[in-house]
Batch of 4 targets.
Target 1
Amino acid sequence: MRLRNVPGAREVMVENEYVFTEPEGMCGTWKEVFGNDNPIHIEIGMGKGTFITTLAGMNPDINYVGIEKYSSVLLRAVEKQDELQLPNLRFIRMDAENINEVFGVDEVDRIYLNFSDPWPKDRHAKRRLTSRQFFARYDKMLKKEGRVEFKTDNRVLFDFSVEEVKEAGWNLVECTYDLHSDERLNEGNVMTEYEKKFSDMGNPICKLIADR
Ligand SMILES: C[S@@+](CC[C@H](N)C(=O)[O-])C[C@H]1O[C@@H](n2cnc3c(N)ncnc32)[C@H](O)[C@@H]1O
């Protein structure tokens, strides 16, 4: 994602009631944050947040937490949430490397990864959100019946991810190389910003779902 520094974005994040900027140590507190026992779905690398904000509006009985590394990107989602005030939506500004300091054992019901950064160099493979190192982190916080859903148009990253699911000892429950042509898997699909951009350019969208 091309990054434009937005002056004041950091300050907005620190003061906004829907954003956590120092989330380390929040393990076990999420029921309290939302004031209910509803399932928790998270999106890691949410960008400007269209996907998670749409889902939160559609599903008031699910709590959503969007995670994004950069304030300048997150700002758009926060401005939208300031208008909508969805009670079931929060954001965290953080690098997901430390995700196990934020969500405790069995605290999360679903993890969405959409158009994650590819980190093309081999020596950076462990930074990919679908690497075995990240699946080990997800294993700790995801409920037994929980799942990871991943979409991308990047075939190299997708092929890597399919291998990593197996390498991590997870099951590949669903796998398509052309989501938008797959009537069953595409039902109810909510497009992300990148998904719209790349499918408009004619790129097929790959999707996998993994569980244990
Ligand atoms: C290519 S964009 C995709 C945005 C959005 N998910 C979509 O599909 O439109 C990837 C986003 O993930 C964020 N990101 C990448 N690695 C991250 C990490 N380790 N922790 C948190 N956010 C991350 C980037 O800052 C960027 O905003």
Note: Residues 1, 44-47, 67-70, 73, 95-97, 114-117, 192-195 surround S-adenosylmethionine (CB under 6 Å).
Target 2
Amino acid sequence: MSTIVLPRIMEVGGGAITRLPQVLQSIRSKKPLIVTDKVMVQLGYLDKLQSILQDAGIESDVYTDTVPEPTAASIQAGIKKMKSDRFDAVIALGGGSAIDSAKAIAVMGKFGGTVNEYRFPRQFNEPGLPIIAIPTTAGTGSECTRVTIITDEKTDEKLLCIGAGFMPIAAIIDYELTISVPARTTADTGIDAMTHAIEAYVSQKANPYSDSQAIAAMKLIGPNLRKVYHDGNNKVAREAMILGSTLAGIAFSNASVALVHGMSRPIGAFFHVPHGLSNAMLLPAVTRFSLDAAKERYAECARALTFAKPTDSDNVACEKLLTTLVDLNEALSVPTPEQFGIDKTRFFAVVETMAKQAESSGSPSNNPRVPTIAEMVTIYKQLWN
Ligand SMILES: [Fe+2]
């Protein structure tokens, strides 16, 4: 048996953002707070959204100070803003960081406490202010997950917070908002989405519902990831990628992520590597480590991603999965930790701490092959070979 949690409303397709007033009416929101970041302001997306609301006669206010890889301190100002007026909903506009910030603001603004009090293994299922999520990248799938990630800057730890309380009530999935995303961010977020689908499918918490979403996501992402990286104006590929990232989000939110994400968060927290990039650095090595424990499942991933032929044996498909993941990192110009500028001495000094943080996040225990701390340390060190 599986418990499946989804947004109540999803508006999907080019131009879907114009449906925002109807979405607000259907949840009886009269005064939403828009939570976003400075990039959305510069790109003119905030203006566009506000004019849609103005034309519909809806009063709104805005908080634009969310930051990439949000910290506990960074969301406090958002909570203060939320409490400054009688807002009845939160509109999250932006990439995963803006949506994750909005989730924390919507829940902690209503229930108080510190991020630490909401961290895994606690399950927080009480609804905060209703959230309408409008993603502008095809990546985290945060618009349809019951997860938010906030960094505790005091301990350099990315805290995973889970529960139905973090699920948006509505998601507006409009690929036109992703057309102007730069190639580097397109690649990083796209790899994140692909990793969600693979990890949901091989997770020990996988179930028939999450499997069907994960396979559909991989079929959309596999053939289109290189295309959107090389030609951001390819609308067909952009549409496939954002739909794929949403389905991958649904898949992992209703199963789990696994070892890649468990080990990726500490790299992000310690060395400020964008989330998708640290996933990409780890994905080939973690797949190699895990492969034998779930060969049929990894082979099915390779076929769904179109990295292997439907007729390939499991062994051949798994081999092709490994080689394609390595090739893909090269094609998408994913840097090694060294090329990214990480100091090797510092990295090696904290590998043990990173492995322990990975373990306490709970994600590695969902992996088909559950690693020891020493095995995670070995994988971290392999990234430098
Ligand atoms: Fe992710």
Note: The chain has a mean pLDDT of 96.
Target 3
Amino acid sequence: MNAVPPAYRLSVAPMIDLTDRHCRYLHRQMSRHTLLYTEMVVAAALVRGGALRLLDHDPSEQPVAVQLGGSEPGELAAATRICVDHGYREVNLNVGCPSDRVQSGCFGAVLMRDPALVSDCLAAMREAAEVTGAGVRGAGVTGVEVTVKCRIGVDDQVPEEVLPAFLETVQAAGIHRVIVHARKAWLKGLSPKENREIPPLDYPLVLSMKRAFPDLTIIINGGIGSLATARELLEQGLDGVMIGRAAYHDPGEILLPADRLIFGSDTPDRSPEAVVAAMRPYIARHLAIGGRLGAITRHMLGLFAGRPGARSWRRSLSEAGSRPDAGLEALDRALEEILAAT
Ligand SMILES: Cc1cc2nc3c(=O)[nH]c(=O)nc-3n(C[C@H](O)[C@H](O)[C@H](O)COP(=O)(O)O)c2cc1C
């Protein structure tokens, strides 16, 4: 049997308010191999102890990577140690997020202006990951990788100049894998949402970076809406593809066939119905400890996208999800409706 390609060949992007633990558990029911990312976790909040619950995850979510936001090397190192102790095997630094909240803390995309600081941050994180990982796993082998997610530039920067300089710097800091969101962030005047849509995508630039830095593992991100496009980009030489919104909103198209089409698995794709069945015991456990149905089912609205009955699935699940007392019977009813419509 051929070896399965590395998980980074396809990943679901970190997305605040979306890729929480319930979302990742759902995505894992759809693809065994795709790499999943947490939402961004602010390093300072972790170190102060306030955000530790954001690191909670089910072991079956693996492979799962945690993303940190920060720009203070000591703080990022301490946060990395906490993440490794929580079982994460990849810690990613966010150098791509343009939101005001993030800019005010001086992290995210604004760091594209300060590669030397990024380098210090990454070096500190690497050292922390190695020391902590060695403690966990013994002599020298850590298996904990530090990676970075960046833009091609910000504001008036010239991407053709800034991006290679940035990659050179992070490579010198010992980083082997970089995710490039293939558009600029405009830090003034655009909302975070507009910053994911308005600055034009530049895939050729990212492809040229792979040729210029053959030893770097380069993952492309931004605007990828189908596995066909993902496969084209892989065939052109990129090491991996990260998909955000399309994977979240249309997981049936992106995640259900991913193991077969991206990782070469010969196992038949799971059906959305089988995914609902696989989620049932997880949801039951969540309800039993006082959790709300909607916290999980809000991530399942797109499961049947494109199928007859998809709208009523979405409607009845959202209605049920907004009721604090809703239980599994609401999920079962929504499923019966969609089965009747098919
Ligand atoms: C709701 C939302 C939240 C996001 N939060 C993060 C985040 O926490 N960290 C990050 O690096 N990028 C974040 N992003 C950006 C995505 O990771 C990704 O780079 C972007 O959506 C482009 O990929 P796509 O076109 O495949 O969605 C977010 C995007 C969305 C839509």
Note: The CA atoms of residues 121 and 223 lie 28 Å apart.
Target 4
Amino acid sequence: MRASGGEYRPSSNYNSPFWTTNSGAPVWNNNSSLTVGIRGPILLEDYHLVEKLAQFDRERIPERVVHARGASAKGFFEVTHDVSHLTCADFLRAPGVQTPIIVRFSTVIHERGSPETLRDPRGFAVKFYTREGNFDLVGNNFPVFFIRDGMKFPDMVHALKPNPKSHIQENWRILDFFSHHPESLHMFSFLFDDVGVPLNYRHMDGSGVHTFTLLNREGKATYVKFHWRPTSGVKCLLEDEAVTVGGNNHSHGTQDLYDSIAAGNYPEWKLFIQTMDPEHEDRFDFDPLDVTKTWPEDIFPLQPVGRMVLNKNIDNFFNENEQLAFCPAIIVPGIYYSDDKLLQTRIFSYSDTQRHRLGPNYLMLPVNAPKCAHHNNHHDGFMNFMHRDEEVNYFPSRYDPVRHAERFPIPSSVVTGRREKSIIDKENNFKQPGERYRSWAPDRQERFVHRWVDALSDPRVTHEIRDIWISYWSQCDKSLGHKIATRLNVKPTM
Ligand code: HEM
């Protein structure tokens, strides 16, 4: 007997040379049910049979409400450039410092077993197991998002998910919902572009998307955006390629990731940041905290910070993918949120869904638990497997030496204002998607137009909705709107 109660139980530590029940009793026949005579009926007292079926009946947990389909891998993050003037984050303290990480790439809309070749954003979530707790950078492959207020997120996901009646994803529902939301145009300029179907998970960018705040030792705050760039470049699948790849293997992305790590061809990304002085946030024609905007790289250049290498495959898909839980609220000293409203909503939503999906003790699961020492009095509940041997489980106490951690800086800016329910002032929905479209070569523009014509040709898309989209794209770029209208045989209204 190796471990005492309360320790994590790797099956190999307990492996018995013979079959047993879950409670450890020997099983002398795992082939046949216990019956009256040779032909049955079966006796309910066959506890082993009942236990085996009952466990099987409960093997699945609820899949993630979004990002259900994913693949994960482990590795390390290494600082390559000094950013200690910007942040006191311990894991970024000096070049050469390495931190273990786990990454989960995902598609967004469809189910746990859906094809990995669909036009869909890709999740790009990284958990850094730092010495000062975990830091989760829960991003996507695109640097912007569809909406800027979390109030709209459930409706948005309902529109993108399959029709509740037929369980088929339908363009008319998507184009109807987003026709009310021109802030989505920039995101659609990524989704309907070639990058809308990445070649696999190794050849795509990643982005923290939101504006976060870095805080240095003196408490000085700097706005920051995080960007991952794959060293092997960004590659995509065009429509006919996606059909072939997906038709042959609906798990091609998972397989590519697993096989390349197994072959020693370790995927690598460089981490860059863009930084902005919060004092300058009013200087631009867009709101820097607006998640539908990028910060122009000529004004805010990409600054290198480090590299991430994935050099270890997971050992168990259920433990290290299904039970893996990321949350944008999980930060470390030296990194803070911004007032971006979408980020603020996410701070609530992830741990909430994980308490439902995995149970209240999901942060005790080895893949989610911090690797550094940790202590508090939040305990017990369903499936607690922390064996505590302290007598003092309240705070403060003169018997318990545990004290507060040293204070670390948080933003010192003053927050005031009336209660409001409103949209932001500088919406500026059309400029950046228009610039993006104009930056492409003609053949790339042509594919973009083709995809829009195709989507808007759905017979259930009404004239009104078609007109709205043509007007939106015309406001981004006159010739783009004109091309879509001409192909659809519609007269542009502006
Ligand atoms: C208010 C807006 C949003 C809400 C309410 C929301 C909510 C959720 C929820 C409930 C999950 C499932 C988590 C789980 O079961 O473990 C999830 C997963 C995820 N979300 Fe969001 N989300 C929002 C916006 C975003 C944005 C803007 C991004 C990208 C920056 C993003 C990236 C992800 C990723 C990558 C995952 C999968 C994490 C994993 O691999 O386990 N989400 N989101």
Note: The pocket of protoporphyrin IX containing FE is lined by residues 64-67, 70, 104, 106, 123, 125, 138-140, 145, 150, 153, 209, 324-326, 342, 345-346, 349-350, 353-354, 357 (CB under 6 Å).
